[in-house]
Amino acid sequence: xxxKLLAVSxxxxxxIFIVQSxxxxxxxxxxxxxxxxxxxxxTNFVEKYDKDFASFLKTRWVETDVIAGEQRDNQPKPQQTxxxxxxxxxxxxxxxxxxxxxxxxxxxxxxxxxxxxxxxLPKDKVPDTxxxxxxxxxxDDTDSSGKSIVGKSIEVSLLGQTLIMxxxxxxxxxxxxxxxxxxxxxxxxxxxxxxxxxxxxxxxASHDLKLDDWxxxxxxxxxxxxxxGLTQNERQLLTWFYLVKQGFDARVAFDKNEIYLLLxxxxxxxxxxxFTFDEQKYYFVDFxxxxxxxxxxxxxxxxxxxxxxxxxxxxxxxxxLQGESxxxxxxxxxxxxxxxxxxxxxxxxxxxxxxxxxQVSMQYYFQAELPEQTKxxxxxxxxxxxxxxxELEAANFLLHFVQTSLxxxxxxxxxxxxxxxxxxxxxxxxxxxxxxxxxxxxxLVTHLMGNKVVGLQYDGHVATxxxxxxxxxxxxxxxxxxxxTIADPTxxxxxxxxxxxxxxGVEPELVIY
Length: 513
Hints:
The protein has 13 helices and 16 strands. With 513 residues, it is α+β, with helices and mostly antiparallel strands. The protein has two domains: 57-65 and 134-142 and 150-301, no CATH class; 96-103 and 323-511, C8orf32 fold (Roll). The longest helix is centred in the N-terminal third of the chain and has 32 residues, at 28-59. It is elongated.
């Protein structure tokens, strides 16, 4: 198969060379005829490769035992958080903080969100807001040949955005009894459909909405189920096919009654069943469900489609482009004698979107960015509260704000399962436990003060440590010759430097991101 793929590349390069060499020596009409002929040859070769893959699928299947998902932290979280009386901040060496500029996006006048204080910005830091919904991925009224496309487009909704995408005629996937031969025939049916315009639209929409690979897969699934009513098995098969054709390392497996979609991911997925094939982990995924599926042994094929090599990455360092905010969260508390109230707008579709993300390692939550409208409103208000404070005073203000403005419950109490939250989700759900508070606090310190933060992962608890220039009392340690002072957003009323009761002298695992 590698030889055939090499032949495709050689043929493609040959076509490019011939086009460059002879385009000027033949008239346009003849050139177009020649181009169509050779493009057809390339297409036929690719179709032959799909036939070869289907032939392979008919025979090379093996039974594979499913492995239980890895657990992230088996230690139970505290049912209640310890609380102490507030103490004055001892700031022996005040260091005035220089507040970073806050990027302010263009906001439509009709948007019903809280007023955001004016922030002066350099022109090169203004976020890109040129792309406006709805997003069109088909011609407005005609296709490339001039024919009307009325009825040839569909609306797909994601993140509160409307995507106008090409309607495709899905193949009829009649599944009576599952077998390797049936799946091979279904692959051929899908490969013979007109799928390429849809692939192009999905990839462009993923780029425009700033989606990571997992978000792309969610969009692919949403696009397919928007086309027509599908059975569970049809939905899994089509999602597999469209992901493979985008180059992702996806595969299917089946048992007596069901077809399962599996993905090779760049990160470990916790509490998610998988099997290992060629030293790669393939996780069972169903994009219609928010919780991992339960399965025993299955059958899968031995060799992957050769061009499908990309592991699916989860990377939220760039926030996806959500629609206009339709919800707000008000965080209120009292710090010393000061009453603090912060209003953060967000889009509820963004929360639904994140609900279909799997559980990954702690650093990916610390890395995640907030959507623009939420970020600007939240940071602009808190920026005013810490303006003029010393570095230590500002760090303690933000620490006390997170400690006392969020209500505490464990994930088991709130969700009945372990569920780490991105910072945007913490603004939505009524309760936040230790890791959620730590991620939220780290985000505020990093973006408002510019100080580096690391996560501290204990058995059954998560906290943070902040790199401060100020001399502080309390617990701290060195990382690469930089001193980090412990800050625990779950130890109510504790100042920077104080370790939560029960974890004194315990060495945590560092979460560096």
